[in-house]
Design a protein that fits this description.
Elements lengths: L1 E5 L4 H12 L3 E6 L17 E4 L5 H8 L4 E4 L13 H22 L3 E7 L7 E3 L13 H5 L15 E3 L12 H20 L2 E7 L1 E3 L7 H11 L6 E2 L2 E5 H13 L6 E4 L9
Parallel strand pairs: 1-2, 1-4, 2-3, 4-5, 5-8, 8-12, 9-11
Antiparallel strand pairs: 6-7, 10-11
Amino acid sequence: MRILVTGGAGFIGGHIVEAAMARGWEVRILDSLDPAVHPDPPPGIPGVSVLVGDAGDPDAVAQALAGVDVVVHQSAKVGLGVDFFDAPDYIRNNDLATAVLLAGMAAAGVDKLVLASSMVVYGEGAYTDSAGRPVHPAPRRVEDLEHGIFDPRDPATGELLLPALVTEDAAMDPRNVYAASKLAQEHLAAAWARSTGSTAIALRYHNVYGLGCPRTPRTRAWPACSALRWPVGRQCGYSRMAASAAASSMSGMLRRQICCPLTRWLAAGLPRAA
């Protein structure tokens, strides 16, 4: 099988490339190698073709898609950004680039897509009160944050809420531009699949960690939380998953023959699909 990994020089993309190579698949990477993300050019991988280009460039996309069976779309602008003035850059890199990629796939007859989405499409997530009743949380109070209290409160009682399991059918509630752009990617993929008779899967990653993980305030906090012996799955109040698990689930999806237009997963690793 021949696969194209957009953003394959990145953190999660690199793990996916390694997992695909281990299965004996032919891998091609399309990556812009943005100096802001890759200050030092990443080393080449024997047997992997690397095309330096933007997923929003129709010519680069057409070249990258030649002879490909499946596309793993990882490239995106991530994070919360500085302020709303970043919105055009998020839409250009995430949504416009995805539209260009999907149009190129339609033209090239490539009919299988695995999309990197995110748990941020669920917004604040699910919470209950002390009696187990679901509650839509209020915005966090500044005074709580200043005192290290990060869980939201019940808007009616002021009681601190308890985190609950978010199911795949939970309502979408994107609360920033990045989240909105990821949900838009899913909708574009669904529209492409229905229009062309193709298949698409969106994997909604949680906070991913592992070798090559970018250094951020959040990832720097994990070792301290681990020293306190907090549960692995919810350290420092955030759910997280290993990059190797994300890559394994992604490669597993590549082997499936998908029959429905779009399959949404809460995160990689769940043994279910619609």
